[in-house]
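Record format v2
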Amino acid sequence: MSSTYGTLFKISTFGESHGSAIGVVIDGCPAGLAFDTDFIQHELDRRKPGQSRITTQRREADEFDVLSGVFEGHTQGTPIALIIRNTDQRSKDYGHISEQFRPSHADYTYQTKYGSRDYRGGGRSSARETAARVAAGAVAKLLLAQAGVQITAYVSQVGKLKLEKAYPELNLALAEENAVRCPDPETAEQMFQYIDGIRKQGDSIGGIVDCVVTGLPAGLGEPVFDKLHAELGKAMLSINAVKGFEYGSGFAGVEQLGSEHNDEFYTDESGRVRTKTNKSGGIQGGISNGEDIYFRTAFKPVATIMQDQDSVDVHGQPVTVSGKGRHDPCVVPRAVPIVEAMAALVLVDMYLRNKAAKV
Amino acid sequence: MSSTYGTLFKISTFGESHGSAIGVVIDGCPAGLAFDTDFIQHELDRRKPGQSRITTQRREADEFDVLSGVFEGHTQGTPIALIIRNTDQRSKDYGHISEQFRPSHADYTYQTKYGSRDYRGGGRSSARETAARVAAGAVAKLLLAQAGVQITAYVSQVGKLKLEKAYPELNLALAEENAVRCPDPETAEQMFQYIDGIRKQGDSIGGIVDCVVTGLPAGLGEPVFDKLHAELGKAMLSINAVKGFEYGSGFAGVEQLGSEHNDEFYTDESGRVRTKTNKSGGIQGGISNGEDIYFRTAFKPVATIMQDQDSVDVHGQPVTVSGKGRHDPCVVPRAVPIVEAMAALVLVDMYLRNKAAKV
Amino acid sequence: MSSTYGTLFKISTFGESHGSAIGVVIDGCPAGLAFDTDFIQHELDRRKPGQSRITTQRREADEFDVLSGVFEGHTQGTPIALIIRNTDQRSKDYGHISEQFRPSHADYTYQTKYGSRDYRGGGRSSARETAARVAAGAVAKLLLAQAGVQITAYVSQVGKLKLEKAYPELNLALAEENAVRCPDPETAEQMFQYIDGIRKQGDSIGGIVDCVVTGLPAGLGEPVFDKLHAELGKAMLSINAVKGFEYGSGFAGVEQLGSEHNDEFYTDESGRVRTKTNKSGGIQGGISNGEDIYFRTAFKPVATIMQDQDSVDVHGQPVTVSGKGRHDPCVVPRAVPIVEAMAALVLVDMYLRNKAAKV
Amino acid sequence: MSSTYGTLFKISTFGESHGSAIGVVIDGCPAGLAFDTDFIQHELDRRKPGQSRITTQRREADEFDVLSGVFEGHTQGTPIALIIRNTDQRSKDYGHISEQFRPSHADYTYQTKYGSRDYRGGGRSSARETAARVAAGAVAKLLLAQAGVQITAYVSQVGKLKLEKAYPELNLALAEENAVRCPDPETAEQMFQYIDGIRKQGDSIGGIVDCVVTGLPAGLGEPVFDKLHAELGKAMLSINAVKGFEYGSGFAGVEQLGSEHNDEFYTDESGRVRTKTNKSGGIQGGISNGEDIYFRTAFKPVATIMQDQDSVDVHGQPVTVSGKGRHDPCVVPRAVPIVEAMAALVLVDMYLRNKAAKV
């Protein structure tokens, strides 16, 4: 198990879906940051369940406590511990799933690796763990905001419904105004109805979250292994249900010629070196070049569905896993703040590491 | 700069394209492994330049020396240092590029981050560094082979030319029999001609490398941050020119319903728990489930082209970057052993880490 | 700030002396360990304040909650979060010390490094943080006990009062039977009276804690940098007030000839390779050799004294720091379980790392 | 095996005593440092064998090659690889020791941990490895010198011969003027004669190296685990033959009262906060306070002696280990540059990490 991420801004998350609490310790946050609890709560609220009828109806207030690291409203350079109590721990009988391996869940692999598992609501493998990431990511965002860096994610695809416009043509601020978090209101409405239909079928569907980073200075990223996009990719792929990551021209870029794909440099009016195009996605050789960073993260359909499925139990015997309870028919609306949080955690770590680049 | 990768099987690579040598130190290789130098050389030969007319004509023998860590033919548990002398260091005048920023290369970002750069052949940002990875990866492969694990990569796309069959329908052994490393001879030939045409135009083209891992036991991977696919993704994205990574159903999976996408479990004749389908790509919850792992890595067209391009110099003044010298018109044939090497490095580290999972 | 320790059994502590809670996240504890909460509480009780009149009269129950990582009485391989609420947070006026630098405390260095500090009871620099280490160390001890490893520390010196016998001549079980934790009852009584006299003077005194590890197999330790004694030394030196560490023959060993100091090998009746003497302290070349490990840790007199002292304030102006409140006149009796805990954390990490030593 | 040290300025050493080469990769050295090869060679020369008749007569030029990371005389932010060829690899018969466990060497523990060992001259456990540390430490010293930091070590004790004066009373520059590296010429001469006598007996003797760091700014060190003195302690204890470490008042400090031991603060004429005394050894709460840092490191007598000793072989059978060949009768004169090098490596890493302490 490795629930620790980061070199200088290091986070360690903990907690199971139906344990008493989840949380995170941030070890290495610089001192002197104004600790905006309202902002952190706002970020948690963006991720929490029950926001609309197309997200799970689990009831969690997701309010957090600060146990350490903040004094007189500011960070102290000491570890910041944040915890979120689990309030919706239904005292129900888990007997029916305690011995079953749900298809495409982590039940079988956890059981095999660790010899046992907390089967209540997925235990540690539940996406509930990402609330802790969002809390830590909010702190990272506060630091980045001081440096003028903004991170904005949004839903660009649900099933086969695709947002056809690229981010420069969109007003990203609109994404937060609908339940799907798609910045094109019309597409958002189509996606909403589509997801709601999936929900009524007791099924689930995948989607894609796009993310844009603006205001990032050139120089962030630590080649050769900790290239900026490699760390972003790892961070995104560590989120539950993610199956793919691409940045800049991504998979589509493989079909281009070098002469089409290369981003020529020029000097803008302010004397700053810029690129005419941005196929590079703001990263060259693993280091930010000062242009916008953009990347896409693919989420599979949620494994929990309200349908019967064949499976086996811990003894290898055939069983029918029956769908009941609450589920997210599509994870991407709630994944938007998670993607932003993980991006913030990567960027703030790189920001701090970059201070040691030159004599 | 972070040229170190791994938690227990830790590698540290070094060297610039036109310095005296490149190499790698492997810190944490278990003792007692038969050190097969022929196999390591064979892997390096698969990556080396000049293998056919569609790869760069740079002349490098890429022969390696073992400086430490091996005694009487076996690893000792001590650091293994491998170096490869750079033999093709043409004593030419680099004046024309020493002050220019080549489009979509790392010249500008290295200069900005570090305040200077070794401009000879791209210095540290050159893909020449990956020879050191291939050498270390070969050692990792030797360890994995003892545990019955096989890693096989191949070219599945060049530009718009796609291999339409999935890996179970292919004879992957055929990939090594042609210069493109595509296991379908007919498609391989088309790709070869296509790349050769690109080469004659002085241009470059992207492509995709697929990779399949067989024989891996269930239980490898360290959630929540070091999920097996997250580390594989980071490793692939750390390779020069990579723009995207997906595993299992990948980006296409987002269009599926949960009821289509879920992999139902069954028990096979030998009593082993298996999945009927493998959309999960052999990984569930970040941990291997014993099925084949497969993933895809997208490479952009190489930035070096034999054409004039607009750019700026280190003073911000406009310049024309003229293409000359030697280049790879398409990187994917030589990327195949690099993808395998990075996969091996991830898997062997996870293999060793997994030993501490249970009491 | 780095509050994270360990490579595989990784702990991250948090909390300030007068914040709402302190605690620890253990990331990497193997699954399947019976989680003995009584034992953990017992260890915390050994460290807690108010055990006798020669320790601080601060009132802390030091009861802990398990937030995660334990299910049905066993560890799950997932992060174990333990918190201890701070109950004795007197709502007093800290005005008198909020701007003063107490001599030989960390007030000045924290203020300089971080630009501010939590001045309440020393904040993060308070030894209260070590309760979290003791809780984590108790978990480590549970793991080691399964492998037959026992760790026993005791007080061997207070001021100039020295226990003249070495550990093989002592009944270490007696250490827990007196308030000083010295295994020789007569010396213990002398030490108690001496410390009590110091306490009445409002002064403090240093001391030495010895520690013995028995039952450890040969092979633990990771040279060349993570030698077993180097990690033990770092761990001990990371405890508040520690000024020195030695193992085996230690500082006294420098006066011996090699012919006196060398530990000759022999084979015992059971066929096990042993050493006739143990100047090496159970460690050779940084790796355990199967003999007892023993080491000594020196603690300075506690900086808090009930006397007036000259100092300066945050503005550099002269002030008189007046002693009031509660203090430990001698830290070593309560340091005994902390030394054991840190030793356990080092040993369990090495135990897990050693699993990857050989093919 | 862990031959990697450091968080940001990370070194990875490699090489066996009688392999083809030893060396080090420095990953994370900031760009822009003037790379003074003469200085690095000078430091290596201070450590090399054969400097006088009281050191081993092994013949090694210890000249180094720079394989990477330096361009046009400056570091590039890329990994710096330095290698030193082993020139004195006598093609002798090692048969007599290949199966014997030399007393108080690492033969038995390496054999047990790794299942085999390079028995030629101690293989990886040989102090020859420290040449790589000295080379890396010299680079660290170059960086620290730019910040005004000086590190000076010297011999303060050999056997029972002690230098009675503390460092402020000594002219440390004199240490390099004699073969013992003791700054008091008279004591140095006594030590020299004493060691020479030991040598003639074929025996060995221990000693102590003191080290003083001046010019270090306040603020370095990363509590709670990576306290400055904890990292210094680990670094010293990782050097071959070290048995103990103390800083500031050290072990002697335990006998003092708090009222004697506390360092009162005052503001000096320049407005800088200082301490009247320095029992703290320049470190409070694990962070440098701007005063001189001083610490002491104890070295046991070298295990290699020119006398017969009882032991066992790899089969557990009794053998007589006979002393022959070349040895250091006392290791401390050559340990002086090693102590300095390790201190430099710790300090430069802390210097870089401290850049991220505040917003």
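Chain A has one domain: 4-356.
Chain A touches chain D at residues 7-9, 28, 30-33, 75, 77, 143, 146, 352-353, 355-359 (CB under 8 Å).
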